[in-house]
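Long-time lurker, first post. I've been practising inverse folding by hand and with some scripts of my own, and I keep getting stuck on stretches where the structure tokens seem ambiguous. Below is the full token string for one chain I'm working on. Before anyone asks, I'm not after the true native sequence, just a reasonable design that respects the backbone. If someone could post their per-position residues I'd love to compare against what I wrote down in my notebook.
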């Protein structure tokens, strides 16, 4: 069998580990390390900048339009998304909150089978409806005064205004008013 002997010149060649391929591998690893470092620095910087920006919570406005007066029929309209009762008696309007003053459940308006005479703060009034809270049983007279259950305070009344630009009713939740409030349009 014929065997090939290595030439003496080849044996004298200096021994290298990988030659050109090894240098390419090293430079690739260097670049990889640098890339990882830059990514880590960028991540840290982003987190620091993000921590300086406050989390913005978009809450519904506390003063908002609900439509022109002719949109509201005589009697009561419940605005479910605002949890608000808008009452209309001909040209007079007022707004009562549907939020129970105990723990914030939405009260329900209950029509009475027949009118009842009740005395509220020394004044005799005829009631045709009242509000009941389904959560813990609080009950409120028609103008919001609690008479049963754990609710500590009356349902809130809010100021109504007429918008100068388009005549819509505006509810202002930042301005509670007393139970005598009426807006005449
Ligand atoms: S939330 Fe209305 S009675 Fe408790």
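-- Answer (accepted) --
I ran through it position by position. Result:
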């Amino acid at each position: 069998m014929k065997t090939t002997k290595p030439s003496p010149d080849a044996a004298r060649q200096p021994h290298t580990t990988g030659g050109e391929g090894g240098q390419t591998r090293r430079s690739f690893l260097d670049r990889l390390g640098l890339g990882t470092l830059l990514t880590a620095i960028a991540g840290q910087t982003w987190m620091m900048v993000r921590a300086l920006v406050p989390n913005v919570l978009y809450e519904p406005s506390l003063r908002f339009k609900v439509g022109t007066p002719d949109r509201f029929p005589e009697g009561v309209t419940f605005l479910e998304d605002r949890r608000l009762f808008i009452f209309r008696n001909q040209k007079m309007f007022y707004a009562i909150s549907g939020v129970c003053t105990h723990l914030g459940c939405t009260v329900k308006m209950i029509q009475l089978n027949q009118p009842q005479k009740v005395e509220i703060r020394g004044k005799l009034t005829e009631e045709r409806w009242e509000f009941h809270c389904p959560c813990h049983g609080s009950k409120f007279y028609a103008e919001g005064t609690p008479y049963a259950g754990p609710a500590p305070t009356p349902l809130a009344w809010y100021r109504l205004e007429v918008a100068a630009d388009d005549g819509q009713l505006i509810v202002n939740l930042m301005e509670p008013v007393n139970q005598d409030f009426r807006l005449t349009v």
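A couple of notes from the structure itself: The pocket of FE2/S2 (inorganic) cluster is lined by residues 100, 102-105, 133, 135-138, 149-151 (CB under 6 Å). The chain has two domains: 19-58, 63-184. Happy to go over any region you disagree with.
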